[in-house]
Amino acid sequence: MRVVFMGTGEIGVPALRWLLGAPGWEVVAAVTQPDKPAGRKLELRASAIKQLALEHGVPILQPLKMRAPESLAEVVALRADVIVVMAYGQILPKAVLSAGRLACLNLHASLLPRWRGAAPIQAAIEAGDKTSGITVMHMAEGLDTGDILLAHVTPIRRRETGGSLHDRLGVIAAEALAEALPLVAAGRAPRVPQDETQANYAPKLGRENGAIDWSATPAEIDRRIRAMNPWPAAHTFLPTPDGPRQLKVFSCIQHRREAGPAGGVLRADRRGILVAAGTGAVLLRDVQMEGKRRMSAGEFVRGHALEPGIVVGKSETKNSNFPP
User: Fold this and answer.
1) DSSP secondary structure code for residue 141 in this structure
2) Domain hosting residue 276, numbered range
């Protein structure tokens, strides 16, 4: 069976790696986004999917716009039996969705119809969901609206972060694909329509989505910090003589018995930075000041005096020199 794999993000690497070694399936091409500038020097960097495909001698397509006639013609010319898509990064036109002789499948990192859209992993953690998973669906023209073939469920762990769930779901996606493809090949793949009454959306994240609202509860702040770790990273602002400076926060501990004005520093010592929330407080444990390296909050406090009563979270500027 001829397979075209379409993906860009690292979450799709385990699925592609499985495909490359799966008997009876030939990956005839990998379609991924064009190389993009990255890092401080803005050097062009290939996607994780491209790097893996290159290692295995798989032909690579990197269309700037998948809707361009020449891009569509290239995909159709591959004569794929199945197209597998995961975290590709572009909306696929109908011509691509119908280019697979047997199916065009999407591996989506949520339990559809819950959390359609670009950021389902972070959304599930921030909402306090107990479970997540991978849904294998037959692709349709709507946003993650296609019929469900199967789903693999996994619990969201107590200290789960966006990064840890991302990595676990990548592995689960390979397992789900290994179960789904034989069903497709045998003509026995289920098609279960999604329940539209249960649908909700997780839009694409920006850096602004990491802002900590200190009027929220400790549980809500903790979920935001974990959901946005590692990107876009939860953050607040510390007052300094030179103006507010951004402080990224990667982990915390809830303190429900502490109290104070929301955003007020209650103490700062080797244990961390204790900040009052809407109810209770949170102890910041792993932080990074703009322009500096990531460190424990206890280490940060040794080099930055934070007196009790200082209020964090207020920013008079929209831009930051904080590195990506």
Assistant:
1) S
2) 207-303
Which has the closest alpha carbon to 15: 59, 48, 44?
Answer: 48
pLDDT tens-digit series, residues 118-145: 999 999 999 999 999 999 999 999 999 9
CA atoms 59, 64, 65, 68: torsion sign: negative
Assess whether 29 and 160 both reside in one domain.
Answer: yes
Q: Cα(99)–Cα(88) distance, rounded to whole angstroms?
A: 16
- Looking at the structure, do residues 144 and 242 belong to the same domain, yes or no? no
Residues in a beta bridge with 138: 105
Write out the two tokens for 48: 């994780």
Place of tokens 């803005």: 42
The C-alpha atoms of residue 251 and residue 79 are separated, in whole angstroms, by 48
Q: Give the distance, in angstroms, between the CA of residue 154 and the centroid of all CA atoms in the same chain.
A: 16
Cα dist from 114 to 109, 129, 170, whole Å = 10, 10, 18
Indicate the pLDDT class of residue 28, thresholds 50, 70 and 90. Answer: very high
CA dihedral 215, 217, 218, 224 (to 10 degrees): -80
| φ, ψ at 86 (rounded to 5°) | -150, 120
Positive or negative, the CA dihedral 250, 256, 262, 267 is negative
pTM of the model: 0.94
Asked, for residue 254, whether it belongs to a domain, the answer is yes
Q: How far apart are CA 317 and CA 324, in angstroms?
A: 18
Please indicate, yes or no, whether residues 175 and 232 belong to a single structural domain of this protein.
no
Task: Report the CATH number that the domain containing residue 60 is assigned in CATH.
Answer: 3.40.50.170
Query: Is residue 314 one of the residues assigned to a domain?
Result: no
Whether 90 and 238 share a structural domain: no
Q: What are 68's two structure tokens?
A: 């361009």
Of the candidates 116, 109, 125, the residue with the CA atom closest to the CA atom of residue 160: 125
- Cα distances (angstroms) measured from residue 76 to each of 4, 73, 98: 10, 5, 9
